[in-house]
Amino acid sequence: MPIRIPEQLPAQDILLKENIFAMDSGRAATQDIRPLEVGILNLMPNKIETEVQLLRLLSNTPLQINVDLIRIDDQAPKHTPQSHMDAFYTLFEDIAHKRYDGLIITGAPLALLPYEEVKYWDKIKAVFDWSQRHVQSTLYLCWAAHAAMYHFYGINRQLREEKLSGVYPHKVLAPHNELMRGFDSVFYAPHSRYGEISPTTYANVKGLDVLACSEEAGAYIVASKNKRTVMITGHPEYDPETLRDEYVRDLGQGLSPQIPCNYFEADDPKCEPKVTWRSHGTLLYTNWLNYYVYQTTPYDLATLNPKTDNEAESDKSK
């Protein structure tokens, strides 16, 4: 079954052109099944680009998925029309009563800003805490992954002097973990960030496992033993040209960005990017939906159990 997305969402036409089947709400209503409920809290300024990237990865399963696009506040984003936000996004306060099988919280362009100085930090913390009671499994991406570590475990990221940008090889550290099922022992994934937390720091947190790691980029996939938290420090959803667009943008802003590693042919920005990560990115999301969401979520979401006090204490213990 395909993902079910709102009619007229721009992502629908893009996915159909890529031969990815997306079902509109009218057709989905005729099927007598219980679809997975997945929310996407999109913190990126270019909402439409991020929507397409994530919906593409969610589409490669036999499951039918209802997707809610969620916004943290009603302020107009810089790179997305207000009409798009009004038509397709729901304020968090308006869905806070719901329960979800899965939730994805995206990264945000807040690399160098202390968490307490983020204008919506209190709202982000409220979403993090809400997810413990209302979501079976939550996927935190890039900035959100580091923010979750800070909020739940009091562990702050370190900031690099140079931005980590490129496509790096990673090793699977837990081949028997279901999230890594089907992965090659070495695979590639894009990164674009300043923040980092050492693999040892993750590993010392009771209840967390580092599933994949890179010598250059550090910990990449970290998951809780109960499958309800997954932190991805990179960007498996990136399009082929995304790192190039970021590099050109930084040049245009008068910065001196390093050429993304292992990305352009011969490391020459005039050449086309080498796309080496998309199959494993798709597999990661497929495994998350299957083993961490579908196989563990209750049929009746009203019976979804919040984390117990023991689980919460275990999560915060080092």
Would you write up a description of this structure?
- The protein is α/β, with parallel strands linked by helices and 318 residues long.
- Helix content is 32%, strand content 24%.
- The protein contains eleven helices and twelve strands.
- The active site is at residues 142, 235, 237.
- Pathway: Amino-acid biosynthesis; L-methionine biosynthesis via de novo pathway; O-succinyl-L-homoserine from L-homoserine: step 1/1.
- Transfers a succinyl group from succinyl-CoA to L-homoserine, forming succinyl-L-homoserine.
Topology diagram in text:
Layout (H helix, E strand, L loop, with lengths): L2 E2 L5 H8 L4 E2 L1 H4 L7 E6 L5 H12 L6 E7 L10 H7 E3 H4 L4 E6 L15 H14 E7 L1 H11 L4 E15 L13 E11 L2 H5 L4 E7 L3 E7 L4 E4 L9 H11 L25 H17 L14 H8 L2
Parallel strand pairs: 1-2, 1-4, 3-4, 3-6, 4-5, 6-7, 7-12
Antiparallel strand pairs: 8-9, 8-10, 10-11, 11-12
Helix pairs in contact: 1-3
